[in-house]
Amino acid sequence: MYLDRKPIKVHEAVEAVLRFAKAGEIEYVPINESDYRILKAPIKADHDIPPFDRSPLDGFAVRAEDTITASQSNPIELEVIETVGAGGLATLIPGKGQVIRIMTGAKMPEGTDAIVMFELTNEFQREGKTFISIKRAFKPGDNISFRAEETRNGDVLVEAGRQVEPGVKALLATFGYSKVPVARKPIIGVYATGTELLDVDEALEPGKIRNSNSYMINSQIIKAGAIPKYYGKLVDDFERCYEAVANALGEVDVLITTGGVSVGDFDYLPAIYDKLGANVLFNKIGMRPGSVTTVAEYNGKLLFGLSGNPSACYVGFELLARPWIQHYLGSKKPHLQLVQGILKADFPKPNPFVRFIRSKMTIEQGKVYAEPVGLDKSGVVTSLANSDALVVLPGGTRGFKKGDEVEILLLNGEGSSEILKK
Amino acid sequence: MYLDRKPIKVHEAVEAVLRFAKAGEIEYVPINESDYRILKAPIKADHDIPPFDRSPLDGFAVRAEDTITASQSNPIELEVIETVGAGGLATLIPGKGQVIRIMTGAKMPEGTDAIVMFELTNEFQREGKTFISIKRAFKPGDNISFRAEETRNGDVLVEAGRQVEPGVKALLATFGYSKVPVARKPIIGVYATGTELLDVDEALEPGKIRNSNSYMINSQIIKAGAIPKYYGKLVDDFERCYEAVANALGEVDVLITTGGVSVGDFDYLPAIYDKLGANVLFNKIGMRPGSVTTVAEYNGKLLFGLSGNPSACYVGFELLARPWIQHYLGSKKPHLQLVQGILKADFPKPNPFVRFIRSKMTIEQGKVYAEPVGLDKSGVVTSLANSDALVVLPGGTRGFKKGDEVEILLLNGEGSSEILKK
Question: A118 and A228, same structural domain?
Answer without folding.
Answer: no
